[in-house]
Amino acid sequence: MFNQIVSRRNTNSAKWDEIIEKTGNEKLIPLTVADMDFPVAPEIENEVIKVAIHGIYGYTNVSERYLLASKRWIENNYNYSIEKEWIVYSPRVIQAISLYIQNNTRPSDKIMVFTPLYDPIQNAVRVNNRELITSSLLLKNGKYFIDFDDFREKISNGVKMLIMVSPHNPVGRVWDKGELEEIVKICKEFNVLIFSDEVHADFVWDKKFISMAEFFDIYENIIIGMAPSKTFNIPGLEASNIIIKNEKLRNELILYLRQAGIHNPSYFCIPAVCAAYELGDEWLGIAKKVIRDNISYARNFFENELKGFKVIEGEGTYLIWVDYRETGLSEDDLSEIMYEKANVAFSLGSSFGSEGVGFFRINVASPRVLLEEAFGRIKKYL
Q: pLDDT 10s digit of each residue in the chain, 382 long?
């Protein structure tokens, strides 16, 4: 199934149809939106078919089975223990982030992120009329690091909330325990709420993933966002779990969700996630191997078959962050070549912040034959 191209055109796909409609270019291959072009695990598909055949698609609740399956997955894969009561269902992590911004901060309050960064998180701060404070990651010898001097200085100047991402999107860093300890230490000193977006935690390559949850006993103002929908390619079913040990913060989110009219998962969500967490290990293992091979293939292509391109060594995610500054091409130049000539869509580096200029992001969670077609087109014009 991982070598099979399943057409997603004319399915109202946010990845495929939206960019084609926006550009009017039917030939585009999108390597943009961070979902996978792989069919889901058969176990998930079978479960969805089973509940579809039932024929009554009524309101559903989060089940005990769902909570226990989520708890087991966390403990088996992320190496920390939780109580099932700490799990709060939210359709999307970004919704939980926005709700905390809206309710735990006030207009004009300062909220910090590390940039370059996935823009919807930055935009969640902007559209809620909070002041976005950015701390630029430092690129040294092909790897990104936190500038802790800059971080401390800005945190100490009235920041109310830190939104961080690990593995980081788009640069692929998986933060080390020492880095996380320093973040927690500084945030605790200045009483800053930490929201850690860990939706790519199941896609970590050559190192151990350390969750911010490991610091629950050290600092109580930490919230974790994770997404089974990201891991098993079911984002359209809208499933994420917000892990909160602090009872006050947890009850607040439950209230915020109710106030926003969010209280029932979709009919297909809960069965699909249960099937994924209970039966999806084999599928995920194969998917990760295919993705790792695709990452190596992409690195070899950009660095050995083209001139002036360098792939940043990512430690996690299925997203590739490519440095093209040595080519001398502007972003407009590259966009014209990629979109209009090669007919390949990619994510502009500038959309991740000013630090992203001279870079672009591509998603390699696709069948190899699709990547080969896209890269062949790129090589023809670059």
A: 899 899 999 999 999 999 999 999 999 999 999 999 999 999 999 999 999 999 999 999 999 999 999 999 999 999 899 999 999 999 999 999 999 999 999 999 999 999 999 999 999 999 999 999 999 999 999 999 999 999 999 999 999 999 999 999 999 999 999 999 999 999 999 999 999 999 999 999 999 999 999 999 999 999 999 999 999 999 999 999 999 999 999 999 999 999 999 989 999 999 999 999 999 999 999 999 999 999 999 999 999 999 999 999 899 999 999 999 999 999 999 999 999 999 999 999 999 999 999 999 999 999 999 999 999 999 999 8
Three-state SS letters, the chain: CCCCCCCCCCCCCCCCHHHHHHHCCCCCEECCCCCCCCCCCHHHHHHHHHHHHHCCCCCCCCCHHHHHHHHHHHHHHCCCCCCHHHEEEECCHHHHHHHHHHHHCCCCCEEEEEECCCHHHHHHHHHCCCEEEEEECEEECCEEECCHHHHHHHHCCCEEEEEEECCCCCCCCCCCHHHHHHHHHHHHHCCCEEEEECCCCCCECCCCCCCHHHHCCCCCCEEEEECHHHHCCCHHHCCEEEECCCHHHHHHHHHHHHHCCCCCCCCCHHHHHHHHHHHCHHHHHHHHHHHHHHHHHHHHHHHHHCCCCEECCCCECCEEEEECHHHCCCHHHHHHHHHHHHCEECEEHHHHCHHHCCEEEEECCCCHHHHHHHHHHHHHHC
